[in-house]
Design a protein that fits this description.
With 294 residues, the chain is mainly beta. The chain is built from 3 helices and 18 strands. 12% of the residues lie in helices and 54% in strands.
Length: 294
Amino acid sequence: MYGTLKKYVLIALLFTVSACQCKKEHVDPPAPPAPPQDTYLVTSIRINGIPKDSLVYNNQQQLIERWDYNTSYHQWQNYISFIYAADGYLKTALYYNENDNPLKSRSQKDSLAWTMGKVTIYTTFYRDLGEAISGYDTSSLQMNNSRLLSLAGSKDTFYLNIGVFGEMVQYEEYLYQQQDISHFTGLNYVNIRGGQPVKDVYSYDMRYNNQINPLFRYLAKNPILLRKVTADLQNIVYRGYPFLASEHYVTNIRSASTDMPVTYYTPDTLKYPLEQRFNSSTIITYRYKIIKAP
């Protein structure tokens, strides 16, 4: 009797092991990793047909140079070279002038120190083709909790110290909805004692779509590049529309005097728009050169 019971127990165990092995054999394999996403790089920007920004990247897809276009000589000439820290945020900016010879001279060096809520910029100025130091300066930019630019300049009144008495306030302020600039204010106020005060203030509210702006990942970690790229010559005076510093593409810009819709042209062969048009009393057209990173 005991031998028969033992035999049935062994048979039951064999069936249990076999069932477990079959169950393991039918476990779904892990899903394959997602294919890598292509990276697209903006290499140049034109406004109304005039070259504005030329952007150069290294093999690690870091934006390392921004060039200015000389409209007199019809060529890209002066440029800024960027060096980044290990976390990807800007550490050093070197400014170069290309002379007619052509000689290249360094005119300025900015060293950036990032702290909570602020970026301090220590500037050294050069002369004699960059061989001699001509002076120093220190400035700061305020950042929000996401390390995005929130204030450039000063909202406090201070006195001019150049033998002229008066007050001056200059600043650019950025307010965000998530990582998109929802409101921008620029103000310039100068009051010379004995003269008439001069005040110029302009502000915009901006709305966006869901398409990712390929410049955002670079401008968000480089406030110097951000201010250069968004400082556009429009309507005779320098009034930058800072939408390129936002994560998404802008669809509408509203000021006190106008409501300006923004439209795009995207060819079937491109992932990103080739052209951006502001439909207002003065039509402003941005045209981009966008390439896929190798």
